[in-house]
Structures are given as C-alpha cells and as structure tokens.
Amino acid sequence: MSGSPEPVRPYGARISWADLPEQVSAWVTGELGEILEVIPQQGGFSPGTADRVRGTRGSGFVKAVGEGLNPHTPGLVAREINVLASLPEYAGAPVLLASLDERIEGERWVALLVEDIPGRHPHTPWLAGEVERALGALGTLVAQPVPADVRLPLLETDLGGDLSLWPSIVADPPEDLDPWVVDNLDRLVALGARAPEAVAGDYLVHTDIRSDNLLVTADGSVRIVDWPWACRGAAWVDTLSLLLNVRVHGGPDTTAYDSQLTDLGATRDAVDAVLVGLFGYFLHASRLAPPPGLPTVRAFQRAQGDVALEWVRERLPG
Hints:
The chain is α+β, with helices and mostly antiparallel strands. The chain is built from 12 helices and 9 strands.
C-alpha cells in the first residue's frame, strides 16, 4: 500500500424507495401520512435506503434494510435504534421518532425514522472553517463523561479486535506490502498491541466520524448523524478520525490541529498506537472480498489505509 490514493467517494450502492417491501413503506405512511416527497441520500455503505421523506403529517429521515441485501446490516440498524434511544441530549443526535423490526416474507427488515435535519455534508476537499466547526461539535460530545445510566459498549472491547490485526498481517503479509512497513514490522506490531488500551475512556465516542456522517446546517453548525457504533472511550478518538478523514479527502494541514488531540488527553504514544492499529485494520480489511451489497467499501478502506500509512510514516521517521 503505497502512493497517493485516487479519490474515493464514501458511499456504496443503495436500493431505492421503490424497492422497499410494501409493509415498510406502509409503516412510514402510518407515521408521516400520505407520502408527498422522497429525496434519496448518498453516503455510507449500507445497501438499504436512506431517504428524506415528507408526508402530509410531517417529515423525517428513513433508513431501512433487509437481510437479503446484507445479512449483518439489519442488526447494525437495530443497534443504532438502541443507541439513539439512550444517548444523552448533549450528543445532538437525530431524535428517534419510530422504528420497525419485522420479518417480511421470511426476511428480517429493520427501519428507523428520525428527525430530518436540514443540512449538507461538509465540502470535500475539506475547508478549514468546516474542519473547525466539526471539531467544535466533537468537543461538545466530550465536554463531560458519559452519564452512568447511559449504557454503551466499551470502545476498547468493541474496536479492540479491529485494532489488533498486526499478528495476522505478519502471518500472511500482502505481496505488495510497502517496503517501509516490511522494515518496521516489529515496531508496528508492538505499537498496535497498545492500541486497544489507548482508546479506553469514559466519554461518548461516535467511532465513525467521516464527512458523510456530518451535516452542516444553515447556521454553519455541525450535527453528527449515523450512530450505530457509539461507545464509551477516550475523548480524543473521534478527533483523530476526523483528521484522518481530512487527509483522505484533502484539506488544510492537519498538523495545525495536533494540539486538539493533546488538549483532549492524548499522548503521542497513544495516537501513534491507534493510528498503527487503524492502518492495520484498513490493510487487512481491504484485502477481503467485498461484503454482499457493499461493492465499494474495500476501495474506500484501501484509500484510508494508504493515507493512514502516510501519516504513520510522518510520525515514525526512520
């Protein structure tokens, strides 16, 4: 994995509103009234629908997917439903209005209906002002520890396996493994082993911060959407994810924001460990066959891995 990646758009192939089972569209009609307008949305890698829907009794944002499209995605939407029902108000997450989890002709379909937040995704390449507003939104998430009564997975447990893949890579290295990586394998394995412990903490972590999971509203503020992976973890992890995304899409020099990580409690060693763990995950995942219904996700993982490697090399010269 070397060289600069070609731009890769962070979305996959979705079914359309017309492809939904009648029971699902009827459920939305029951919540919003007669459907007047459906506006499909891009972003993310679910093969299901993602639509802004306007009805005679109200509007909302609908996500719906069946296990025939991908066997794991309905469970992911169900997880997001549970997360949205329990998040503290300061998260600013979309309000959950209704949900559906049914077997339709023998197939599990899961759908959620949340408030429709007027807004657009940040510009890519990123603009400095939008990076700063996104950082401000992330700061709100970690201004206080997660309340004790909010039940979320621990990040070191939920993400730990993905951050701990270097032994597997060493056991079966890619033929095109970057020469710098080959020369530094022992160093990378040792750093990656510390990544799960490094992400532990007691703050709300979205865990999947990318441009397509953020909305810039009319007043310029940023709202964070798509919450299935929310965890309890270190306060700086989402900021690191945002800066990686800026590097993936292009934008201002992210070294200007290094102090943001330090201010949130990150040590240099912890950041290095997590970046190495993320690089290992993207390197491993990008070599796998595309999951059902997600034909573009491996290319995007490859692009993220290339950028993560470049960043690791900057931070670990020699």
